[in-house]
Amino acid sequence: MLKVLRFAATAVLLFTAYFGDVIVFRSRYSNSLLFRAICDVLVHGSLGFFSSIIFFSIDNNYFSLEYDGTLHIVLCTFFSSIIDIDHVFVAKSIYLKDMVNLKHRGVFHCTTFWLALTALLLLYSYIKKRIEVYMFSFMIVLAYITHHLRDGTRRGIWLYPLGSTPPVDKKLYYFILGTFPHVSAMLFKRYKRYFNYPTLEDTFTV
Ligand SMILES: [Zn+2]
């Protein structure tokens, strides 16, 4: 059952990524700033949502951790969408006309910022043995990787202080988008024992 969910969620994720861009940039309503802004946020949120669904559809003994993932899926969707809020801060305006054609990107679009935040969260969860913070770190990673990759197909990935990469190739974007949640879940599984207090099961498992 989880396999079917995983396959279906991956297909819908890629479908949303492709047709989301068609609707945002190439539909008959694309000239409307409001239409583009709303659809853009919805696409970003959907990519986070389906990525986290894939993450939780990989059998990882989540249930033994007492977390079913619902809150984490909501958080991943929320963070994927809210990253664009920094357009408001950079433009210092709530009007869409001021938010387009900004000369520089805000800190939430800086991949280095999120990498540093993720590293701090992982360090904290490792020291304090907070498995739910460990899991939350993966949701943050899924949120900003999907968001930055999609934006990166137009503007590149911003790795302060090194600068920005060239625009990400579309095929590479779809490949990373489709595989990253699977790889994340495997990494979560591989290292989760370092972020949790040992259980009786672990104690007797060699
Ligand atoms: Zn963005």
Q: Order of helices and strands, N to C?
A: HHHHHHHEEHH
- Bound heterogens, unique: zinc ion
Between the first and last Cα atoms, what is the distance in angstroms?
29 Å
Question: If you compute it from the alpha carbons, what radius of gyration comes out, rounded to the nearest whole angstrom?
Answer: 18 Å
As for the number of domains, it is 1
Annotation field: number of helices: 9
What spatial form do the alpha-carbon principal axes imply? Answer: globular
What is the overall pLDDT average? 89
Strand order of the largest sheet: 1-2
Low-confidence stretches: none
Structural class of the helices, strands and pairings?
Answer: mainly alpha
Membrane topology: Multi-pass membrane protein
Pfam families: YdjM (PF04307)
Transmembrane segments: 6-25, 37-58, 70-95, 107-127, 133-150, 171-188
Organism: Spodoptera litura
Describe the structure.
By secondary structure, this protein is mainly α. It has one domain. It is built from nine helices and two strands; from the N terminus they run αααααααββαα. Strands 1-2 form a two-stranded antiparallel ribbon. The longest helix has 25 residues. The mean pLDDT is 89. Zinc ion (ZN) binds next to α7. Keywords: Membrane, Transmembrane, Transmembrane helix. Pfam families: YdjM. InterPro entries: TMEM267 (IPR026572), YdjM-like (IPR007404). It comes from Spodoptera litura.
Give the secondary structure arrangement, pairings included.
Elements (H helix, E strand, L loop, with lengths): L1 H25 L6 H25 L12 H13 L3 H6 L4 H4 L11 H18 L2 H25 L2 E2 L3 E2 L5 H22 L8 H4 L3
Antiparallel strand pairs: 1-2
Helix pairs in contact: 1-2, 1-8, 2-3, 2-7, 2-8, 3-7, 6-7, 7-8
Zinc ion binds next to helix 7.
